[in-house]
UniProtKB/TrEMBL annotation, chain A:
GO biological process, one term: DNA-templated transcription initiation
Entry superkingdom: Bacteria
Annotated family: Belongs to the sigma-70 factor family. ECF subfamily.
InterPro entries on file: RNA_pol_sigma-70-like (IPR039425), RNA_pol_sigma-70_dom (IPR014284), RNA_pol_sigma70_r2 (IPR007627), RNA_pol_sigma70_r4_t2 (IPR013249), RNA_pol_sigma_r2 (IPR013325), RNA_pol_sigma_r3/r4-like (IPR013324), WH-like_DNA-bd_sf (IPR036388)
Originating organism: Bacillus aerolatus
RNA polymerase sigma factor 70 region 4 type domain ranges (all copies): 124-175
Name by which UniProt lists this protein: Sigma-70 family RNA polymerase sigma factor
Residues in RNA polymerase sigma-70 region domain copies: 24-91
UniProtKB/TrEMBL annotation, chain B:
Gene Ontology annotations for the cellular component aspect, listed alphabetically: plasma membrane
Organism: Bacillus aerolatus
Signal peptide: none
InterPro entries named in the record: Anti-sigma-K/W_factor, RskA_C
Keyword set, alphabetical order: Membrane, Transmembrane, Transmembrane helix
GO-annotated biological processes: regulation of translation
Protein name (Swiss-Prot/TrEMBL): Anti-sigma K factor RskA C-terminal domain-containing protein
Source organism, top-level taxon: Bacteria
Length: 184, 248
């Protein structure tokens, strides 16, 4: 199992191989746990529940990962984020979480997962993000980390959905630009 | 920027329904502008997760996650294997809007009604078919003549035929050149057996004096002669009027 690639592991999981699921857990739990922890605003109990649902999703999903879908870690985190969004949409904590977020401090990761792009470090994204305006950061966080829909954000911002879309578009584009500059 | 291009952000945020998702994926294949932007957007989107702080994962979590997954999956499979009719119905219900559901119910009722009437029709056809299978046979024929040949109705006459089809027997009386009737008068057919008369129905002839009558004969009914009288109305149980025609 140890020497299997992520794609192979996921195929085995599709075939209900328990050891493959455990291997995926070992490889990615730190990333998934940290992601969900941030998504739930540091609620350990909710984080546990969501992590359980993420692995249940991986175990029962009909869809499989193909390398054509991009990097495995991106696919995995898309699955994770979808479970998070579904969870908070069912739960009332969604409204409670609707507050301005605290800026996140850059952190060192001692043990980065193989699949994480080497070029980008956690520092760099936080740094690039810090170069955006407060309202740009807020928009991105509402969408990505709070799981609000574009329509909901438009209501909160009191703006047409089209405007929110183009503001987000510009914000993400700028973020990407900042990341590239840092990369040089 | 086309209407489809506006869906880029919704696509990235996974907010499109399956249909629109497919549409946008198609759009991406030939809109170079969107394809370029999509690449930038997904790169930025997928870098966002890196803005996390590493957390220490509780030691006990692995066992809790694995237990949860395998127990839930087992439960789910048991649930699926035991066919749940309520779930099936509620899913069916969710599939259709109220109007569509009402339409379907109406169509179903119509279909059932039509099949039922079709079935009945088929049975009728079958029955009538069976009737047609059994041939009609002529049991006997009686010749009918005018009772009083002096009265200038010399041409008056006809025939009475007894028919049999399977178990059923019937009598057909056909007479021509009958004298014209007045008012409520009718012709009445009587079956005679040992001097007793039995009513076999009434009829009215047409302008030319031609009349016809069919009468279903009871199984055990027998008679020797037939007489036709003219009656003042249709209520006679015994002949009240004059005999016009009789079998010889």
């Amino acid at each position: 199992m140890k020497e299997k690639r992520d794609e192979e592991l996921m195929k085995l999981v599709n075939k209900k191989d328990r050891r493959a699921l455990e291997e995926l857990y070992d490889r990615y739990i730190k990333l998934i746990y940290s992601f969900v922890f941030k998504f739930t605003n540091g609620n350990a109990e909710t984080t546990k529940e969501i992590v359980q649902l993420v692995f249940l999703k991986l175990w029962t999903t009909k869809s499989s990962y193909h390398s054509s879908k991009g990097k495995f870690v991106n696919w995995l985190l898309t699955v994770t984020r979808n479970v998070c969004v579904d969870y908070i949409r069912k739960d009332s904590i969604h409204t409670q979480n609707n507050q301005q977020m605290n800026p996140h401090l850059p952190v060192e990761i001692a043990d980065p997962v193989d699949e994480i792009e080497k070029k980008l470090t956690f520092n760099e994204v936080a740094a690039a993000k810090s170069k955006l305006s407060t309202s740009q950061k807020r928009l991105i966080d509402l969408l990505y980390w709070k799981g609000f829909s574009l329509t909901e954000i438009a209501k909160m911002e009191n703006e047409p959905v089209g405007t929110v879309k183009s503001r987000l578009h510009q914000s993400l584009k700028q973020l990407k630009k900042h990341l590239e500059v840092e990369d040089l | 920027m086309g209407r489809e291009c506006e869906n880029l952000l919704s696509f990235i945020a996974d907010e499109l329904n399956d249909n629109n998702k497919r549409k946008f994926e198609k759009h991406l294949q030939h809109c170079t502008e969107c394809a370029k932007e999509y690449e930038i957007m997904t790169d930025a989107w997928h870098s966002l997760y890196l803005d996390i702080e590493e957390q220490k994962v509780p030691e006990s979590l692995k066992a809790e996650v694995m237990d949860f997954v395998f127990i839930e999956d087992e439960k789910d499979r048991k649930l699926k294997s035991s066919f749940n009719i309520n779930e099936w119905f509620s899913q069916l219900y969710r599939q259709f809007s109220p109007i569509a559901a009402a339409l379907i119910v109406a169509l179903m009722v119509l279909t059932i009604a039509l099949s039922f009437s079709n079935m009945q029709l088929r049975n009728e056809v079958k029955e009538s078919g069976q009737e047609n299978i059994v041939p009609i046979e002529v049991l006997s024929t009686l010749s009918l003549q005018a009772a009083d040949q002096t009265e200038g109705n010399i041409n008056t006459g006809g025939s009475a035929v007894i028919l049999q089809q399977g178990e059923a027997k019937s009598l057909v009386v056909q007479v021509r050149d009958l004298p014209r009737l007045e008012g409520s008068e009718v012709y009445q057919v009587w079956l005679l057996k040992n001097g007793k008369r039995k009513n076999a129905g009434i009829f009215k002839p047409d302008e030319s004096g031609a009349g016809i009558l069919t009468y279903e004969l009871a199984q055990n009914l027998q008679f020797d002669q037939i007489g036709i009288t003219v009656e003042p109305d249709q209520y006679s149980t015994e002949p009240r009027g004059k005999k016009i025609v009789g079998s010889s």
